[in-house]
Amino acid sequence: MSLVYWDTMLFAYLFEGHSEFKPRLAHIVHRMEERGDTLCTSVFTVGELLAGPSRTQRWDEVSKLRAFFRSTELRLLEFKLSTAEIFAEIRSRASTSSGDAIHLACAAEARVDLFLTHDKRLAKKIVPGIQFIATLDSNIL
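Now predict its structure.
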């Protein structure tokens, strides 16, 4: 059993039914279920995902997203004072955007086993508290 963090784009691909990435994500979800892994992400992800449909007033999509993130399907990680300190460390030593640093800090504080992203730049980072950072196209799952 592992704790697996997904960044925002993976959820976006899944919810939007992205034709190129949805089959890979379905495979990853299946493998995670087989292994008994726990999916997690930060509350920041929820905000990022709600922004688009809120801006275009697609309230049915907003409701679906809220329901998913309130379900027991995943573990939501908060951004706390201790997370902010990890964030500051990541931002001070690496050329990482604030958004990416928030994701990495939340994952590091939770001591995730795997941080899964589509961003190849993030896959090159070494962040204490995160065992592995991998891209969607890796064979890690």
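The longest strand covers residues 38-42.
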